[in-house]
TrEMBL record:
It catalyses: octan-3-one + NADPH + O2 + H(+) = pentyl propanoate + NADP(+) + H2O; NADPH + O2 + H(+) = H2O2 + NADP(+); heptan-2-one + NADPH + O2 + H(+) = pentyl acetate + NADP(+) + H2O; hexan-3-one + NADPH + O2 + H(+) = propyl propanoate + NADP(+) + H2O. Its main location: endoplasmic reticulum. This is Flavin-containing monooxygenase 1. Broad spectrum monooxygenase that catalyzes the oxygenation of a wide variety of nitrogen- and sulfur-containing compounds including xenobiotics. Catalyzes the S-oxygenation of hypotaurine to produce taurine, an organic osmolyte involved in cell volume regulation as well as a variety of cytoprotective and developmental processes. Its EC number is 1.14.13.148, 1.14.13.8, 1.6.3.1. The keyword Methyltransferase does not apply. Its cofactor is FAD. One of its GO terms (biological process) is lipid metabolic process. The lineage of its organism: Eukaryota, Metazoa, Ecdysozoa, Arthropoda, Chelicerata. It is found in: Endoplasmic reticulum membrane; Microsome membrane. One of its GO terms (molecular function) is NADP binding.
Amino acid sequence: MTTKRIAVIGAGPTGICSIKCLLEEGMEPVCFERTNHIGGLWRYHDEDIEGLASVMKTTVINSSKEMTAISDFPPPEDAPNYMHNKQIYNLLKTYAETFDIEKYVHFHKEVVEVDMAENYEETGRLVVVVRDTETQETSKDIYDGVMVCIGHHVYPNIPTFPGTEKFKGKIMHTHSLKKIDEFEDQVVVVVGVGNSGMDAAVEISTVAKQVYLSSRKGTWVLPRVGPKGFPLDVTLTNRFTKILMRILPYFLVCWFSEKVLNYTFDHEIYSLKPKHRIWSQHPTVSDTLPLKILTGRVLVRKNIRKFVENGVIFEGEDDVTECDSVILATGYRIHFPFLNDKLATIKNNEVHLYKYIYPPHLKHPTLAIVGLIQSVGGGFPIGEAQCRWISLVFKEKMKLPSREEMEADIKSKREFNEKRYVKSERHTIQVDYIDYLDEIYTMIGAKPNLFKMFFTDPVLFFTLFFGPSLPYQYRLQGPHAWPGARKAILEWKRRVIKPLKKDYNSQPYLAKLNVLKYVFIMLIICVILFLGSGLVAKTEI
């Protein structure tokens, strides 16, 4: 049987994961990367290049290293829990070197077109046209499948405001924001209170004369630092909490969460409180913003009503707020300019894809969109899960359901998001971290059977159930299981504390539990197992 050749577009995190997964299934990956390096978004560059994802020089990731880990590649013990973009890039480089990935990447190659081959109806093959960014020469080849791995932080969403043509200052999107030096002693308005807006306002406020943070709806701001100084996602993202949130009324969960959050700083007083509930939005993360507001370095204002020559007028105000620069932290458009419309269409940032990956109308599952997702949790584990599943589908070890079933799943997810989240283009690809990973890994047989584990390996069960829902759990069984998965799970606390306290030595999870406590907790778990759903992995695929 001829080895399948799969085109991978982009050598960012999902691109290099795609290469590894394809190799594990005995296929030949051919990766096209328009720059001269891997890493995608996480490889900082000074230049503002259209069509390339970008970060600020100061950007730090919002998810902790354990919740961001690739499932068979734990982060180093000495790595900080929240890594700077350069450290993320170095981690990706190490991953690529460990699995000898870069030799499959063709640098300075930009994909300009993907279309059906002439014999697509019979074979499912796709034509890929590539341009060499140095010589400008184009080439064309046919592949057995295509994985699109460019993400969704590429094409800026630029809103329109009355009077922008009159404004004599600078207007730019956070996509173009690299360094903060140019804003020294300026008055700057940042539009948008998502994560990029928070980062821009906080960082620029260290050099600017004044920063205004403009918001239409407000937002709930979560800290990176959680109880006892542990990363917040490590504390909250666990199966025990997930089941409680599923069992308890939604309004009660939101009320309690908002109460706890407002205990740190009152969102109403700080002019940030939105009308929607806390879990009806994608989390906005910042530990520093409250202090910046408290010290007056950042002032919160409503949406911009209009621009004038020397500044802006905010809604609810008549006076002009003079400013030198306006930075639009207004998100991104989902766009794949190289994809033929017959393959996939996007309208109002809504994607019509099965599991956010496969166009359901195509006869063959040979086109996969990877990483087109926004999770309440780390992005790398989500992307890797998709890559593992896609590689099995390409290898024909798994099949997709009927078009009717896929359409029903798409509709169900869309209706859920419309009901759960406030209306926003940023929520069209929103998923829950644990639920989505369980969904994908149940299909491929890699979701751990926690019910069985409860009796056969209680130490591991307790760690997984009450501790963070770590990516390594999806390597305990199933395709390409990893022998080091159990050890990686049990030693999570060591890797979290080690960069903070070098002489820390971890103890077994149950070392401090006496018999009565153990029995009591076991009884509680039995009740939860009975009430909760989704704990027992499905045996049929």
